[in-house]
Specification:
By secondary structure, this protein is mostly beta strands. It is 1% helix and 40% strand.
Length: 381
């Protein structure tokens, strides 16, 4: 999963030319105040975890094409959904994302993002069956199909924002150096954050406040551009922020944060990698939004974005954004306050293997998923 990469290492001033203050980022301070407890194991490449609103069950995405249910601490033997025969899995491909509709309790709708057998991205809606632990596979409704030119940088995350819109993170299409220039091309759905209204049309409607509605030179689904591979992104529902962990190329990993309501953001790729000009010592930064935090590849190789903690079990980290690095295996967090990144911490939780993703349950509690086939919950030490 090398090409998922990118995240933080030293002191950074992430000044946004085009608006926004910079953030003074200190080196992370070690802390042993958190631990992790195993809640599930024996899984096959668990890439994501989430819960429907108000639901105590955990739904775990396995890369080969299955969604498993953890109910009352027990992993159910029958998958919630099994589409392994439709999924092209391996490397950065597979069943990559899951989002439950905000009104799941009444609609029964959930949305998955997977790579099909031809290597292309499919965002598909399914409906739960009469059995709440099993989906109706026959209910599949394709929402979005995006051709992928290469086998990496598929993005894969889907999530509903606080506005009720479905957001889809799309990588630049793969290979290296963004050879087709997708990151800065508003006419393609690659290298972009997409935003669609799945309640307003069939298969979706374009939100009227999307920034490129009515333009002939841009795709109306686009909310933001300039992304390399936004493997994981998340919304902080309390502060109204959107955090995007964008995997870097050869040198820098980054975490971006902007108001969730900010449209037409350009995160910089491939003009920039992190806060650094890419491929040239000089570049035009005008109009680009630079990272909140970055780290170099002397400190990791692939950023794994998480969540701002808004649960109740861990009050000491309330408001901290958690992230990790796939290669190094460390887990860090920080809090934003008074115009600065504060309480930058590296948590001494022991060896959890290669971190594939974070997850959040309906109560806002935080989980970590590892290539070792385990799901961990963060707990106080």
């Amino acid at each position: 999963m090398r090409c998922l990469a990118g995240v933080i290492s030293s002191l950074v001033m992430a000044a946004c030319s085009g608006g926004g203050a910079g953030y003074n980022v200190s080196a992370p301070v070690p802390d042993s105040g958190l631990a992790v407890a195993v809640v599930a194991q024996g899984l096959q490449s668990p890439l994501f975890l989430t819960s429907p609103p108000g639901d105590t069950r955990l739904f775990i995405v396995e890369q080969p094409g299955r969604i498993r249910v953890l109910r009352n601490g027990q992993l159910l033997s029958t998958p919630f959904l099994d589409i392994a025969d439709l999924v092209g899995a391996g490397g950065e491909r597979g069943l990559l994302g899951l989002a439950f509709h905000p009104a799941y309790a009444s609609s029964g709708w959930f949305f998955v993002n997977y790579t099909d057998r031809n290597g292309n991205t499919q965002v598909v809606r399914y409906t739960v069956s009469a059995d709440p632990d099993v989906a109706d596979r026959g209910s599949a409704k394709t929402i979005l199909s995006v051709a992928q030119p290469y086998g990496n940088h598929n993005g894969g995350h889907v999530a509903f924002g606080p506005d009720g819109m479905l957001y889809v993170g799309m990588g630049d299409g793969g290979s290296a150096n963004d050879p087709h220039g997708h990151g800065q091309n508003r006419a393609t759905l690659l290298g972009a954050m997409l935003r669609v209204d799945v309640d307003g049309g069939d298969p979706y409607a374009i939100p009227t406040d999307n920034p490129y509605v009515g333009r002939q030179d841009a795709a109306p689904e686009i909310w933001a551009i300039g992304l390399r591979n936004p493997w994981r992104f998340s919304f902080d529902r309390n502060a109204g922020m959107l955090y995007v962990a964008d995997v870097g190329q050869n040198a820098w990993e980054e975490v971006d944060a902007r108001l969730a309501s900010a449209a037409a953001v350009n995160y910089g790729w491939r003009i920039m990698e992190g806060t650094h000009c890419f491929g040239s010592p000089i570049c035009d930064r005008e109009g680009l939004t630079l990272p909140l935090v970055e780290y170099g590849h002397d400190n990791g190789c692939s950023v794994i974005g998480g969540y701002v903690y808004r649960g109740s079990a861990l009050p000491t980290v309330q408001g901290h954004y958690f992230y990790a690095d796939w290669c190094q295996g460390w887990v860090r967090s920080f809090r934003v306050g008074d115009g600065a990144v504060r309480e930058h911490t590296e948590w001494e939780i022991g060896d959890v293997g290669n971190v594939l993703s974070f997850g959040e349950d309906s109560l806002g509690e935080l989980y970590l998923l590892s290539q070792n086939g385990r799901v961990y919950r963060f707990v106080s030490r």
